[in-house]
Amino acid sequence: MIAICEDLSEIREMETRMRQADRLATVGRMAANIAHEIRNPLASMTGAIEALAGPVPGRDERDRLTQIVSRESERLNRIISNFLEYARPAPLTLEAVNVAEILDEVLVLLEHRELPPSLKIVREFPTVVTWRVDPQQLRQAVWNLCLNAVEAMPDGGELRVGAGLEDRRLYIVISDTGDGIPSSDQPHVFEPFFSTKSGGSGLGLALVHRIVRDHGGDVSLRNGASGGTSAVLVLPAAAGTVVAR
């Protein structure tokens, strides 16, 4: 009996060491990825600032360099914010909110960004859809998906955002008319740090996945038959009560 207990203790100690090693390996991979993602915008900002600090450039060139600093600092902030949101998830604070207002607020913010001139935004949701969610986290998930859709259409296209009810579930669908997702990438799109974009952190969709799963729901990305991609968020009835009109 003593020998068995000693064997079990050794097994538990070995399992503990393995879990610690896995955690350290995960932290190491995350740190390496973050360092890589931060280095690119920092290099762009440094180059622009050095140019501004030299002989005074013409007004057009000065404006261009200033825009580079502003754009890259925003990109840097987004990388760090996504990392912190993913690494230290806040507990859900559920309340009954009008999801339609959240969708509209995100689209209004998006419309005030610099977008391709030929990009069209289409709203396809009722005036009121009341549902128990964490409004801040849902807003973050919708924003990430909309931003991802816009970035898939650099030459313009159509962004459609819809919401509706079916089988006591709330559906939010965000569709673009971009090139779609290659089949080889589809199994990995929600993995942390996976990105096919040169300036992507690979955390935006991973954060969306975590937020939706924390709500007890599911999210998927589907290619359309004629091109484009649709992100489908599903929140089950257990999360709250819906009133739509």
The CATH class of the largest domain: Alpha Beta
**Fold-level CATH name of the largest domain:** Heat Shock Protein 90
- β content, as a range? 15-25%
Structural class: alpha+beta
The separation of the N and C termini measures 68 Å
In round numbers, the mean pLDDT is 82
How many domains make up the 3D coordinates? 2
Order of helices and strands: HHEHEEHEEHEEE
Report the principal-axis shape.
globular
What report would you give on this structure?
This protein is of the alpha+beta class and 245 residues long. It folds into two domains: 2-87, Orthogonal Bundle (Helix Hairpins); 95-244, Histidine kinase-like ATPase, C-terminal domain (Heat Shock Protein 90). 50% of the residues lie in helices and 20% in strands. It has five helices and eight strands, in the order ααβαββαββαβββ. The strands form two sheets. A five-stranded mixed β-sheet has the order 2-4-5-7-6. A hairpin with a 2-residue loop joins strand 4 and strand 5. The termini are far apart.
